[in-house]
Design goal:
alpha/beta; Aspartate Aminotransferase, domain 2; Aspartate Aminotransferase, domain 1; four-stranded antiparallel beta sheet; 13 strands; 13% strand; glutamate decarboxylase activity; PyrdxlP-dep_Trfase
Length: 474
């Protein structure tokens, strides 16, 4: 983009934004089953957007300058703590930041020279990201391949004297099942190790599913041995993006998440989050969403979500060649194919206007498609099942992706550092993923099949290059 010589009119800018968004996935209506969360209640989203705008230019850097953010954060964090077993919290930009602060607090509290954290293979990659940034080793343990839950005995065996944190999920994102929180927390506590519950997805969902009649095991800070918990409000809290809370059972541990520096002659630096300057817009949007829905609204959404998830699981099980993985307690549903290539199925569904999220195979868990059921899903669950059935039939007729001989070995053996972005873009286009400007939306079945055949480290290297190409060379 070239900076215009003179300023442009607002109407012109908004028209340009509309043009840029023309090929985006829709954020409302339920046809996109990942990334976005829709209540189906336009007035709630409108209230959040207005509050977001009102707080947009307020800077969270200095709470003494803007006392409104202190009061809003106290109310938002207090509401989360009331539902999730108490504790002392921090409002963050999302699950990754909440997790990063939890890992930092545990690392700093333990003071080990070579700290490690023990996580199930189903734990969110945000823990790997936090460990990468914070100099912590990740010790990954397998999950039961029938239930997809981590086994407490495996956690106990993986811990060492350098373990600073043990992690469980409520639920884990890939299959939507809740790890045995109480048992793992007890194992951790017996070893004197903190236990973090990643409830980024489920923290503001499971209480409402329980209220709607679902059997939800204890998972929050009320469970003995649980020392911290992350809960995203921009997921099933339905707040605008940039809203999460991390809770600590002990205020002293929360203080370990903070950062302060007085080693310079400028203004006072004390940060509760990774970010310093940040807009209070997400805080305002989260506060307004909680206020607009209230307890009754969330219970109603929980009831609708519970019904939709049950109907979806039952409907998928009736489609030839498809099977739901595990027995999810939440509203996350993952299904694999027997005789149906799920990557081809995803492309077929995308062609019909629906986005189903592909998940690659890993640690014995097969490749599958993931659906996040939200408050709006119930109204369109029959349409979704119809599309899945049609797409499965089309995928069965097309057959699985057949890769050219030697392609996987070629990609695995590439010295990606020796390729510039233009050369990598040509390589990607040769297998059907033309990422160059103007190429349109590529089918992803071939790309996903290649990625699925690669080891994790090679997948990561290829994905980094994909991102580099998407955003241009240089």
């Amino acid at each position: 983009m070239n900076l215009p010589p003179t300023g442009r009119a607002t109407a012109d800018l908004l028209a340009e934004i509309a043009r840029l968004k023309a090929d985006d996935l829709p954020v409302r209506g339920g046809q996109v089953t990942a990334y976005v969360y829709d209540t189906g209640r336009a007035e709630v989203h409108d209230a959040a957007a207005r509050a977001y705008f009102e707080m947009l230019e307020v800077n969270c850097l200095d709470p003494t300058a803007f006392p409104s953010i202190v009061e809003m954060e106290r109310q938002v964090v207090g509401a989360v703590a009331d539902e999730l077993g108490g504790g002392h919290g921090i409002f963050t930009s999302g699950g990754t930041e909440s997790i990063m602060l939890a890992v930092k607090a545990a690392r700093d509290l333990a003071g080990r020279e070579r700290p490690n954290l023990v996580v199930p293979v189903t734990a969110h990659p945000a823990f790997h990201k936090a460990a990468h940034y914070l100099g912590v080793e990740v010790v990954a343990v397998p999950v039961d391949l029938e239930t997809y839950r981590v086994r407490p005995a495996d956690v106990a065996a993986a811990m060492t004297e350098d373990t600073v944190l043990v992690v469980v999920s409520a639920p884990s994102y890939p299959q939507g099942v809740i790890d045995p929180v109480g048992e793992v927390a007890a194992v951790a506590a017996a070893a004197g190790v903190p236990c973090h519950v990643d409830a980024c997805v489920g923290g503001w969902l499971l209480p409402w599913l329980r209220a709607a009649g679902a059997e939800i095991p204890p998972f929050d800070l009320s469970v003995p041995g649980v020392t911290s918990l992350s809960c995203d409000l921009h997921k099933f809290g339905y707040a605008p993006k940039g809203a999460s809370v991390v809770l600590f059972a002990d205020p002293a541990m929360r203080r370990r998440a903070y950062f302060a520096s007085a080693a310079w002659p400028g203004y006072t630096i004390i940060n509760a989050t990774v970010q310093s300057s940040r807009s209070a817009g997400p805080l305002g949007g989260a506060w307004a969403t909680l206020q607009a829905l209230g307890r009754e609204g969330y219970v109603e959404l929980g009831r609708a979500t519970l019904e939709a998830a049950a109907r979806l699981r039952e409907g998928i099980a009736e489609i030839p060649g498809l099977r739901v993985l595990g027995e999810p307690e939440s509203s996350l549903v993952a299904f694999a194919g027997d005789g149906v290539d799920v990557f081809v199925l995803a492309d077929e569904a995308r062609a019909r206007g629906w986005f189903l999220q592909p998940q690659l195979s890993y640690a014995g868990i097969p490749a599958n498609l993931h659906i996040t059921v939200t408050g709006v899903t119930l109204a369109g669950v029959d349409a979704m099942l119809k599309v899945i059935a049609e797409s499965a039939a089309a995928a069965r007729e097309r057959g699985p992706v057949e890769l050219p001989d030697g392609l996987v070995e070629l990609v695995a053996g590439l010295d990606l550092d020796a390729l510039d972005d233009a050369s990598f873009a040509e390589l990607a286009a040769s297998v059907g993923a033309d990422l160059r400007p103007g190429a349109g939306q590529p089918e992803m079945a071939v790309v996903n099949t290649v990625l699925d055949a690669l080891p994790a480290s090679s997948r990561e290297a290829v994905l980094v290059r994909f991102l580099s190409v998407l955003y241009g060379t240089g």
